[in-house]
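Appendix B. One record, verbatim.
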Amino acid sequence: MRLSDFRGQKNVILYFYPKDFTPTCTKETCGFRDLLTKLGNESTAVIGVSADDDSSHESFREKHEVNFPLVADPKKEIAKKYGAAGGLTGVLGMTKRLTFVIGKDGVIAEVLSGMFSADKHVEGARKALERLAASA
């Protein structure tokens, strides 16, 4: 999967989260799941990334009926490229909570950060998508 595959076709919410099955990460993932369901997947793609492995992601996806891909990044190679590695979370083997909303043109329209608020990320992404739709 490459972000360039979506260029010209879909907006993308690319979000990094610390760990499967933790309360805030579960709330955030389920929030993006519900947002994608509401929007329909024709205009928007959601991709979640954490340092958890594929097995953990599959269990997490099944338990919470996640309708988008969760990418395993155990070496935090992707997270490093987006500034989502390091700090205390890096010491604990996790990524930072960081969300990117990317327009169909491939340009980052919004960056949301903050470790303790799932709502900030989901609501911020929703508002960014509304702005993108209004400017199209």
